[in-house]
Specification:
By secondary structure, this protein is mainly beta. It has 1 helix and 10 strands, in the order E-E-E-H-E-E-E-E-E-E-E. It starts with 5 loop residues before the first strand and ends with a strand. 14% of the residues are buried.
């Protein structure tokens, strides 16, 4: 992972939203459907000032649809809870994992059976940097 968070600018990026459903089976002609302009920030960000972009490296979260090269949005203002997918710092290294809290035991779980959970030993540092709220993936 890149070591520097990228803040998300609060400038409006307006796109046209068609008020028609898109069928993933047989196509339906979309003739005169109403349209309006939307700001993607309103749909992708929970807390604008606390949201950052990170590029994913590796495949430890592939079973939840987070792949190498994806861009994730991380919100620093959300209190991390058990089972959240989080961006954590383990001994100065960023990692994306599922947060697992069981009593006083905290582990970071991968979503790929090829990887082992991270269980903390004495002297290891864990900082939950933020909660992953969105995965942005280009299809082309």
């Amino acid at each position: 992972m890149d070591t520097q968070p990228v803040p998300i600018a609060c400038l409006k990026t307006l796109l046209t939203l068609f008020e028609a459903s898109v069928v993933a089976g047989f196509p339906s002609p979309a003739a005169d459907h109403a349209q309006r302009r939307i700001d993607l920030n309103d749909h992708l960000l929970i807390h604008r000032d606390a949201s950052f972009l990170f590029r994913v490296k590796g495949d430890s979260m592939k079973n939840v649809g987070i792949f190498e090269g994806d861009t994730i949005i991380v919100d620093r203002s959300i209190e991390p809870q058990h089972n959240h997918i989080v961006l954590a710092v383990v001994d100065t290294e960023f990692t994306v994992k599922r947060l697992h809290r069981q009593g006083r035991v905290v582990r970071l779980l991968p979503e790929n059976e090829a990887y082992e959970p991270i269980t903390f030993k004495d002297g290891q540092e864990l900082t939950v940097w933020g909660v992953v709220t969105v995965n942005l993936r280009k299809l082309l």
